[in-house]
Amino acid sequence: MENAKILVADPISPKGVELLRANPQFAVDVKTGLKEDALLPIIGEYDALIVRSQTKVNAKVIAAAKKLRVVGRAGVGVDNVDVDAATKRGIIVMNTPGGNTISTAEHTFSMMMALSRNIPQACASMKAGKWDRKSFEGVELFNKTLGIVGMGRIGGEVARRAIAFGMRVLAHDPFFSVSRAKALQVEVVELEQIYTQADYITVHVPMTDQTKGMINSDTIGKMKKGVRLINCARGGIINETDLLAAIKSGHVAGAALDVYEVEPPPADWPLRDVPQVITTPHLGASTHEAQESVGIEVAEQIAEVLAGGTIRNAVNMPSLDAKTLSTLQPFLSFGEKMGRLVAQLKPGRIDRLVVEFSGKATELETNPITRSVLKGFLEAAEGGDVNYVNALVFADQLGIRVGEVKSTETTDYTELITVSAIADNVTTSVAGTFYGGLSIPRVVRINNMPVEAVPQGVLFIFQNRDRPGVVGWIGTIMGRHGINIAGMSLGRDAPGGRALTVLNLDSAPSDAVIAEIRADKDIIDAKVAKL
Question: Which residues are catalytic, by number?
Answer without folding.
Answer: 234, 263, 282
